[in-house]
Structures are given as C-alpha cells and as structure tokens.
Write a structure and sequence with these properties.
The protein is of the alpha/beta class and 337 residues long. The protein has 13 helices and 10 strands. Strand 4, helix 7 and strand 5 form a beta-alpha-beta unit. The N terminus is likely disordered.
Length: 337
C-alpha cells in the first residue's frame, strides 16, 4: 500500500496556513456530503462560522488559490469541486490531521484530558470511552487466533489497547502518514501489531484477510460509504464480524435518527449485511460534557504548552455537540457476515 503524496507537493505554501487549514476542514465536511454537487459562498462561510465561531479567519487567499488552480470551480456565488480536488483535499487533510494528532500525543495536558474524558489515555481522537471499548470487545469475542483490521486507527492507541485485551493480531490503517509513522515508532518489534497508510475509499487489501474489523468513529470520512461497507464485507473471512461506532447529530428541527435510519444502516442494508445495535447516546452526551469541562479546566495548562488553539477547538466542538442534545444519537453496530 502506497503512502499519500505530501500536500507540499500538491499545494502552494499559501494553503498550508491556519486560514487554509480552517478552509480545508470545512471543505472536507462538504465533500463528504451525499449532495455535495455544489455549494454557495454563504453556505461555506456559515459552516465555517458554526465550526470556528469568533475565531474564524479570512479565507480569501486560500479560497482564491483553490479557484485559480481549478480545484474549486466558481459560477457566480456558487462553487463545485474540480475534477482534481479530491486527492488534493485528501492529502491536505492527512497533513493537517496528522500534524494535530502527533502534536497532541506529545502533550502531558492532552494526556490528562483523555484520562478525565475517556478514563484512560490512548491518544484518542474519538468519542468512545473505556466502557464503550469494553462493549466492543464483548460484542466481537476476539481471540488470539483472530486477525483484525482497525479502520482509521489514528496513532494506534485504541488499536493497541484492543490487541492487549484480546491477544488478537491487529492491523491498523489510517490515511495520515505522520500518525502511522508515530505508531510504527512506538510499537516497533511488536509481533501482533502492524500499521499501514491506506485509504478507506479504496481498501486495496486482499479479500478474506480478516476475522474482524473495527471502526471507531471513522466511517463518516468515507467518500462513498456504501462502497466502503461493501469492501469491508469482502475483506472478512467467512463467519467474520464487524464492530462499527456511528454518531449523528442532525440539524435542530430534524428528527433524531434511530439505529435503522442512519447512513450506515442504509449502507449495511444495501450490502445485505444483518446487524444488531447498542444505543450509546446517553453515554456519548455525558462524554461530551466531560470533554467540555476538562478542556475548560485545563485551559491554563494547554496555553502553557502552546496548545491553546487545540484546547479551543475542543471547547467549541463540545459546546456545538451539546446544543439541542435531544437530536443526537450514537450506536454500536455489530455485523456478522
């Protein structure tokens, strides 16, 4: 499996800025939408304001660069993604995401934050606490004879925890080369942990390679979720199983989604995969509350480490997720092939 091209080889330096990072995070949320054919300048700005609020920067320079290079096609006040936009966006997100995770993993304050929020520091960048990971292990019944794919493993901390608890052989896959390099460095020589740079939109791995697959808050980033779910099913050996965490927060006024009404449920049904679910909505809302409280309590420590922007992003995300909690839902899908 080949590594992603570094964004510096695809993008000018004007895009590798804080303003460019904000713009790419926002564009990434748009390209992941099923209806992402076009979007307005107002919609783009509104999404940015919702995410970054009073810390939203001026995007004129990076936005102009994307239009100039044909990565965004402009028609009046509306944009569409150019034919070469997707690989550039993926490479840029791998750069920014990897930089953020590797930086946070080295932070003593982020370690404290994870211990307060999740119950143990596994360098998590997701919303699964230790109780949810225990439920995942209990549902999959992993043994030392099993070979497991962890999709979107990040720095590999959760992957390593699941391996240690089960004894299974784990392969962690992530699209960001910096986090895979860090996972390799930390676990060098471990006989039952292996890490790959890879893309969940292609999953160019041999069919029938795994007894189980885990995805902890990562399938949202699949460009074509039905295709990715179909590939995951093909990667399973007969009798294989999957444990997939999925959260959704509709816009205010939209109904709360039940376990059979999510995009993931639709993709599983389209592939003919039966599933059972466990509702973790209450658990996740409590986790978001802990996240907000911990980030605010540790503000001084984050600033002392020069991580005030990361702390701020956690606070803003916590506040956003706790707005209109009655619309929120979270489920663990367990799939048996």
């Amino acid at each position: 499996m080949t590594e992603s091209t570094p964004p510096s080889g695809l993008l000018p330096s004007e895009l590798l800025t804080e303003a460019g990072e904000q713009l790419f995070w926002t564009l990434n949320s748009l390209i992941l939408r099923p209806d992402q054919a076009s979007f307005s300048a107002l919609e783009l700005r509104t999404l940015g304001q919702d995410r970054f609020r009073e810390h939203l920067l001026n995007w004129d320079v990076p936005l102009g660069q994307l239009v100039e290079r044909g990565l965004l096609l402009k028609d009046g006040h509306h944009f569409t993604f150019g034919p070469d936009a997707e690989p550039v966006l993926t490479a840029a997100m791998a750069h920014f995401f990897g930089k953020t995770l590797v930086g946070l993993a080295a932070s003593p304050t982020f370690k404290q934050y994870n211990e307060r929020v999740h119950g143990q520091d596994l360098s998590q960048f997701d919303m699964a606490d230790m109780a949810q990971l225990s439920a995942l292990l209990g549902a999959l019944h992993l043994s030392p004879n099993d070979t497991v794919l962890d999709l979107g493993c990040g720095l590999g901390g959760v992957c390593e925890y699941l391996q240690a608890q089960s004894g299974a052989h784990f392969t962690g896959l992530d699209f960001a080369p910096p986090v895979i390099a860090e996972a390799h460095r930390r676990t060098a020589g471990h006989p039952r942990l292996h890490y790959l740079v890879g893309n969940m939109d292609t999953l160019d791995l041999p069919n029938a390679s795994f007894d189980a697959i885990t995805a902890v808050d990562t399938l949202y980033f699949a460009r074509n979720l039905p295709y990715t779910v179909k590939r995951l099913a093909e990667l399973l050996r007969p009798g294989g199983r999957m444990g997939l965490f999925w959260s959704v927060k509709p816009n205010a006024g939209q109904p709360r989604q039940g376990p059979d009404n999510t995009r993931l449920a639709a993709a599983l049904k389209a592939t003919g995969l039966p599933y059972t679910t466990t509702d973790f909505t209450v658990s996740e809302l409590a986790l978001w509350q802990r996240s907000l409280e911990a980030a605010e309590a540790l503000e001084g420590e984050f600033k002392a480490e020069g991580l005030s922007d990361d702390q701020l992003n956690v606070v803003l995300e916590g506040r956003r997720m706790l707005e209109n909690p009655e619309f929120h839902s979270r489920f663990l899908y367990v799939v048996q092939s």
